[in-house]
Amino acid sequence: MQDKNYSMKEAMIFSQRVAQLSKALWKAIEKDWQQWIKPHDLNINEHHILWISYHLNGSSISDVAKFGVMHVSTAFNFSKKLEERGLLRFSKKENDKRNTYIEITPEGEKMLLDLMETYDPGKNSAFSGALPLRELYGKFPDLIEMMAIIRNIYGDDFMQIFERSFANIDQEFTDVDGKITKKKNEQEIESVQ
After folding, report:
1. What is the mean pLDDT of residues 131-139?
2. Residue 173 — φ and ψ, nearest 5°?
């Protein structure tokens, strides 16, 4: 057995620090998130499922649960509600009848894009709390240590999807007049001309 190079007190203090800071941060994030999506009659799980479905483009309920950090039954039940509203579509794959797959519908994508356009950083506590650090250091905190902890808990797949969703936003969206909008693809540009 390997000797531990930390004390029990050090381990407990670290664990409690992370727990208390995470809880405080989550309460602020939860409140802001709920206020942001409220006009679209969504809850956090529904919005998160739409977000994941958009970025995974045809994912299984198991994948949604995994990347949404929720129980499979939670992912399924909230996905069902989104399907009833016409925001998601359920399907089975010919070569995989055991898993249920979901994909975002054009109406679901429109709602997600509308939400992105209404994002107001001034109403986001985490953003507002990090702004003085950006002003001081010229950039937002990297969160690299937090990401390393999450990678060690949830694995590389989780972090790959996490990074892909933000890379998608960076590539597919632009900031126009203080609003986030989807870039027009070449076909859309040609049809306008």
Report:
1. 94
2. -125, 160
Q: For residue range 51-107, what is the model confidence (pLDDT) as tens digits?
A: 999 988 888 999 999 999 999 999 999 999 999 999 999 998 777 778 889 999 999
**Quick check: 122 and 183 in contact, CB under 8 A?**
no
The pLDDT of residue 187 is 52
DSSP string computed for the chain: -PPPSS-HHHHHHHHHHHHHHHHHHHHHHHHHHHHHHGGGT--HHHHHHHHHHHHHTSEEHHHHHHHHTS-HHHHHHHHHHHHHTTSEEEEEETTEEEEEEEEE-HHHHHHHHHHHHH--GGG-HHHHHHHHHHHHHSS----HHHHHHHHHHH-HHHHHHHHHHHHHHHHHEEEETTEEEEPPPHHHHHHH-
**Assessment of whether the complete model's pTM goes beyond 0.85:** no
Angle at 155 between CA 151 and CA 160, to 5 degrees: 80
